[in-house]
Every structure is written in structure tokens, then in C-alpha cells.
Amino acid sequence: MTPSIARNVVTIPKARAKRVRTRISYMSDEQLERFLQAAKEFGPREHAMFLFAVAHGARISEVCNLRISDIDFKNEQVHIARLKGSLASTQSMLRVKGNALFNEVAAFKAWLAVREPDADSYVFNSQKSTRLDRVSAYRLFKKIAKAAGLPETLQNPHTLKHTSAMRLVHGGANAFLIRQALGHRSFNSTLAYVNPSDADASAAIQKAFSQAF
Predict the structure, then answer these.
(1) Can you say how many angstroms the Cα of residue 80 is from the centroid of all Cα atoms in its chain?
(2) CA-CA distance, 10 to 8, in Å (whole number)?
(3) For the chain, is the Cβ count within 10 Å smaller at the N or the C terminus?
(4) Residue 128 in this model has a pLDDT that exceeds 70
């Protein structure tokens, strides 16, 4: 069985005692841009945290756990300390030429320039705590998603991880690169996104031979 991709929902077969199907919702390019614009209008913290999440496929708890020492402005890199057994990684910060919404360095600098200092070193703090908690971050995401006009199926912050994965898939990245980018320890997690159809495979064969000859 192969997944169907329609209206930004990937339906994927999953083996259990009984056959069930898992639905993965993700944002289209236009929806992602609209969401990040709404986040930026909400504030520099929200823009930086959710851009970080989608740029590196980070869970909301991993966003909240990000420390200032994880950011290397000199080399424009950020360290992602992943949870749930996933692999930690250090990745280049995202920069899309000509689109300020996707400039991760600028987003981090804009937030840190106004961030109130506290006794701890978490990047994303709040007025009440030295570390923004995942429940508050979830509520922020939902509020911004609603402001951006996103449907209810896209009002969960985990859709940013799915969106990151599907951007890689649509960009032609192979399973090894997707696994590394998302920090998957097991390929089974990666294969939830990479499950091409016969038509996809046929198109790839045609392209490969056309480029060679």
C-alpha cells in the first residue's frame, strides 16, 4: 500500500495487530509563509521559536529546551538536543535569500536583542519563568495558527515537524538526508514520510535516464 497525498495530508499504512492508517498533516508553502508572517507580527520570540521548529524539525519541547549556548552566531549553526531517543545534531541556520521570514540568524538576533535577562540560559523565556513551558508554547502556536487562518488540523505545533519533513520529500531529498535532518534514530520514523508510489518511481527512472543520455 502506498500513501495518498491530497490537501496536505499524507495517509500512510502502519503495521499493528490490525492494519491502521496514520494521517500526517502539514502546511503548504503558502500556509507556512502565512503562519510565519503571523508569528512575526505576534512578536520576535514567536517568530524565532517557530522558525527554529520548522527549520530543524524540532518538537515543541525541544524548542523550549533550546539554550543560548546552543546558538553559534559566528558559524551560523544551532545545536538541537532532541528528545524521545532521537539523535542530537548541529545544523546550519536557515536562510532563504530575499525572504526575511526564513532568516533564522536575523530572527534569533531580533529576539535576543529584546529578551529580558534572567537567572537561566533558555532562549525562549517568559515574564513568569526562565523557561517557556510546552503548554504555553502550544497555546501560542494555536493562537497564531488561528490568526493565520489555518484549519484546525494544522493547529498543533507538531505539524511544523511534519512540514519540515515534507518540504524535504518534495525537494527530492533521499531518506538518509531526511533521517539526519530530523534526528530519527530509526529509519521506520523516516519511512513514515518517504513511501513513494510506482508512479513516483517510474518518474524517477525516466528522469535518471534522460539526464544520463
Answers:
(1) 12
(2) 7
(3) C
(4) yes
